[in-house]
Amino acid sequence: MRAVVVRRFGGPAVLEVAEVPVPEPGPGQVRIRVAAAAVNPVDLATRAGILTAAGVIPPREVLGLGWDVAGDVDAAGPGARFRPGDTVLGLRDRIALPLGAYADYVVLDASAVALAPPGVSPVEAATLPLNALTAAQALDLVESAGAVLVTGAAGAVGGYAVALAHARGRQVVAVAGEADEAIVRGFGADEFVPRGRDLGERVRALVPGGVDAVLDTALLGLDALDAVRGGGEFVAFAAGAAPIPLRGVRVRTVWIRADGERLAGLATTLRPRVAGVLPLEKAPEAHERLAAGGVRGRLVLTP
Description:
It is built from 10 helices and 16 strands. By secondary structure, it is α/β, with parallel strands linked by helices. Strands 3, 5, 6, 7, 8, 15 and 16 form a 7-stranded mixed sheet that branches. The protein has a 6-stranded parallel sheet with strand order 11-10-9-12-13-14, with helices on both faces.
């Protein structure tokens, strides 16, 4: 089968479409015939060697790329709760492996997989797992019930964070580019603050004393921390992106984990956002487009 792999770190040109053996599912695992795989910023960081340099991924001769997958179950190992022919979506959260979702087939633990909702295409479904689960698990870390600030609210994770916080009855203050105000309000934001200087002052003009919590998907750090009240909460979305916990703010980092049961519920409530579709061999082009910025939703690769 074909799989996109990295044998050396660098720009998009290092992505290689290799011929590799078809993987076999073990106990409690399923093999998925990939119909679609989303391209995420973490894939760019893996390809460039950033995650290896940071100690998140140990040195490997070969690394596979791709976390998000949608397709049909092709084979199931003993004890797996899915059958061949089931249409599913899933998340590969074990990232230091030689094969990822950018491939013709991928093997996942059945616990990381969910049945795809009716009416959702594989391309749409593939945009959901990593971004939806990250947003939901980040919001789980917030214990206060008051106003929440979401930075990067027009992004894939940020948009879902806005929608989920709104669904939980939270007052949502969203930060994004000025051109994205309408789309962010459509996700459920109550207040909108354009990106820029003096973020804390502008947020506090809307929420006196500051918001109760920040979901910092845009990695603004101290600028976003200034918008939260003393003793509030702050959730960072990348290793090393957590600011110093000034003013007694409780700072946490969300570490994504696969959860097929949770994913099944999210897939029925959240709206997929597809930015474009490219064939598997165009993975370098997809990385270039994502790195250039301005992508709304997720680019998707199809074998």
